[in-house]
Amino acid sequence: MKQSITLAIDKPLLQRARAIAVQRGTSVRGLLAQELAKLVDREGAYAQARAKALAQLKTAFHPGAPGSSIARLCMTGKVFVDSKVLL
Prior knowledge:
By secondary structure, the protein is an all-alpha fold. The protein has helices at 11-24, 28-58, 69-76.
């Protein structure tokens, strides 16, 4: 279900928005709806990624644990270790 809203913006901004909308083959209303949908989607994806990262931080991590990417690389011999770096 769609709902209309009223928006007050400066005239020069509206003129520029109209020009962009024409270039994209849409209306200012359509342009705003598309951009707002993108913003909401990005925020949702960010919130999910943040929650996942925070959950992973709560679990213990050992870089050499079986299944970790470092352990897999060491087992396949694909790791270059600089002898000047202390591990």
